[in-house]
Amino acid sequence: MLELLDRLPPDPILGLMAAFRADSDPRKVDLGVGVYRDDAGETPVMQAVRQAEQALLARQTTKSYVSAVGNAGFNAAMERLVMGEEHPALGAGRLRTIQAPGGCGALRLGAELIRAAAPEAVVHVSTPTWANHVPLLSNCGLRLERYPYFDSATGGVAFDAMTGALDRLPPRSVVLLHASCHNPTGADLEDGQWRELLALMRRRSLLPFIDIAYQGLGGGVAEDAYGPRLLCAELPEVLVAVSCSKNFGLYRERTGALHVLSATPGAADAALSQLARIARGLYSMPPDHGAAIVHAILTDERLRRSWAGELDSMRLRIQQLRAAAVQRLAATCPRRDFGFIARQRGMFSYLGVEPHAVRELRERHHVYMLDDGRINIAGLARDNIGYFAEAVGKVVR
Ligand SMILES: Cc1ncc(COP(=O)(O)O)c(C=O)c1O
């Protein structure tokens, strides 16, 4: 039976990673894969994670099952991290949380919940959006459509085009939004634009589904959660998919959560019961280790301070690299304005160069980025940023 299966092409990012590994040139620069890197090019285990993990292993007496909704302490701590300590949704009894296998697991759970509630619902994603949003949101059978988002002329958000399109959607349409550090463009909504979106969502009865995968890596922990906090304070229903992969560096531990805000406490209980059933049918229970680490960090003052400090320095490093990249590129490409890189946030930017330039950068200069020109800013470092800017100067005409 399995002989009938077609062989699929490899994922382009995996192909890019393999090509980078096979490149023996010592000057090679990896701006492809979306993980945070320090100045030595490493993706380190955060200090607080290491300490929490050691204490956890010493203390743990069983590996018995937890539950389909995961670690209750983790879920409560994540609600406070994402929403803030004083958020009205916490007191109103309308917010429920299920632990998920990473942000991807949370996105898939959210999509399945929407399908259970309204199989005909259409999910609208930004143009462009993170490539994996497409299978995560549509493999359960939901239809996906796109709304305009990125303005390549300014490197910012095409807000009028975006709101113009959203304003024409029928009620009960689902709108996938990136809370901050938009992947792949780095172009984020300003606070005032979130407020305008809130009014639009309310007026048109749209359901926001917010993906927050980079909290703390854009403008700060509270700043990056402005959108989800605002919408959850004001709207009857919101879904928020959270990833701890980047801001806790827990990529392979598959740690995340889905928050669901419902109109009433009864509806919230029903939604959680549905989510538990969905999780049982997909993977039964989420992995415990990463969630236990995050719970330990967020509920211990010393570990939390250490984590927040390290996260601050990661964010600062990205901001400094953005400023340095603009400066270097101004010198090597005087006819192009790369100033947008410093106005964008998070790990990613579109470099905005033509496909032939992306190819030449890879083949002639050993600088690797995605085919669409997305670069991971954190892949730059003190000792390669000059080389990177010179290489771009050679291929940009
Ligand atoms: C926009 C976005 N959402 C969600 C995720 C989910 O990541 P994970 O499943 O590793 O937590 C990522 C990871 O790259 C992302 O970029």
Topology of this structure?
Blueprint: H1 12-22, E1 29-30, H2 47-59, H3 72-83, H4 88-92, E2 95-100, H5 102-117, E3 122-127, H6 133-138, E4 143-148, E5 150-151, E6 156-157, H7 159-166, E7 174-178, H8 191-204, E8 207-212, H9 226-234, E9 238-243, E10 256-261, H10 265-282, H11 289-298, H12 301-332, H13 340-343, E11 348-350, H14 355-365, E12 367-368, E13 374-376, H15 385-395
Parallel strand pairs: 1-12, 3-4, 3-7, 7-8, 8-9
Antiparallel strand pairs: 2-10, 5-6, 9-10, 11-13
Helix pairs in contact: 2-11, 2-12, 3-11, 5-10, 8-9, 12-15
The structure holds pyridoxal-5'-phosphate.
Essential attributes:
397 residues; alpha/beta; 7-stranded mixed beta sheet; two-stranded parallel ribbon; 45% helix; binds pyridoxal-5'-phosphate
Order of helices and strands: HEHHHEHEHEEEHEHEHEEHHHHEHEEH
Taking the alpha carbons of the first and last residues, their distance comes to 53 Å
Strand order of the largest sheet: 2-10-9-8-7-3-4
Q: How many strand elements?
A: 13
Q: Provide a count of the helices.
A: 15
Major sheet attributes: 7 strands, mixed
Mean pLDDT: 97
Question: What is the gyration radius calculated from CA atoms?
Answer: 21 Å
**Helix coverage percent:** 40-55%
Outline:
globular
- Structural class, from helix and strand content? alpha/beta
Question: What percent of residues are in strands?
Answer: 5-15%
List ligands, each type once. pyridoxal-5'-phosphate
Provide the low-confidence segments as ranges: none
